[in-house]
Design goal:
Strand order of the largest sheet: 2-1-3-4-5
Order of helices and strands: EHEHEHEHEHHHHHH
Helix content: 40-55%
Structural class: alpha/beta
Distance between the termini: 31 Å
Number of helices: 10
């Protein structure tokens, strides 16, 4: 995926986006705003089943997803599509700011969560940041999500591979360093600045780490790191 936030490099491909919402006027307006800003809107959908089918065919980089959908709820759409393609980024765009909805979306694999009260500029920024793996949340929700990461880490769950066991995948020193900063809640951009490496290099380290640990998304990665105390180092 490419970071086209500044739009200065004509060689970069536009971010491929799909918009899913059951209200046609809202869906069309969001798709139009994104397209007019230079993003490539590859598909839209109005219900959950349609969203899953079309996303698998269109292969967007970012799925802009409403939670309240007919046929299949948004969280189930998110789970299915992220399981099908772990590289997919999902930005929930919802009218609900209820904590339970936010946490359910994050646990289903969403990268970010934005309220529909956001401005067009905020949405565009959120899509671009989501495309490169940064967690994007409406102000006030980021702390809630980090707290949920910590709660999940304290609960028993499916065991991730233990790096101390013989034959377990070994992370490089740099991968461990990036993982530690992810667990502390830093964005990929902040990690890149902290380690004086490129944004893309951070992405590559995270993808390599997910593969080695057989994890699927940022939620599982943060949980793994917190379970091992990496966020306290």
């Amino acid at each position: 995926m490419t970071d086209t936030a500044n739009g200065q490099d004509g060689q970069q491909d536009p971010i491929k986006v799909m918009v899913v919402d059951d209200h046609p006027m809202w869906r069309d307006a969001v798709a139009r705003d994104l397209a007019e800003s230079g993003l490539d809107v590859v598909a839209t959908a109005g219900d959950g089943d349609q969203a899953v089918r079309r996303a698998k065919a269109a292969a967007p980089d970012v799925l802009v997803l409403d939670l309240n959908l007919p046929a299949k709820p948004g969280v189930q759409v998110c789970k299915e599509l992220v399981a099908h393609n772990p590289a997919l980024r999902v930005l929930v765009l919802s009218a609900s700011g209820e904590h339970a909805d936010v946490l359910e979306a994050v646990k289903s694999g969403a990268t970010g969560y934005l309220l529909k009260s956001a401005s067009t500029e905020e949405l565009l920024d959120a899509v671009r940041r989501t495309a490169v793996g940064d967690p994007v949340f409406t102000p006030g929700l980021a702390g809630l999500v980090l707290g949920e990461y910590r709660r999940l880490a304290s609960d028993p769950g499916p065991a991730a591979p233990d790096a101390d066991q013989p034959g377990a995948p070994q992370l490089t020193e740099r991968e461990t360093e990036v993982l530690r900063l992810v667990a502390k809640g830093l964005s990929y951009k902040q990690i890149a600045e902290r380690l004086v490496i490129s944004h893309r290099t951070v992405q590559n380290h995270v993808q390599n780490t997910l593969g080695k640990l057989q994890l699927h998304n940022r939620v599982e990665l943060v949980r793994y790191a917190i379970e091992r105390g990496l966020d306290d180092e």
